[in-house]
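Tutorial, part two.
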Amino acid sequence: MKKAAAAESTRSTGRRVAAAGQTPSWLAPTAVVLLILGLLYLVTYYLSSGQLPLPIGDWNLAAGFGVLMVGGGMLMFWK
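Running the prediction step on this input gives:
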């Protein structure tokens, strides 16, 4: 019983802390631009009834959502 308590106390005191780092200044603006571009791409596709921006059919949805996902993924690294 004492060994388990000792192991628990050493485990709880040796917590890991995230390394202090600086976020690059270009990260947030680039992510926001990608989010806006992805949204504009999808809106253009819907408003043009699938005729614009590229003649690739429903793959335009994948392209637009892909750009949105890249922008959202970049925001995960923003501190």
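The two ends are 42 Å apart (CA to CA). In part three we will examine how such features are distributed along the chain.
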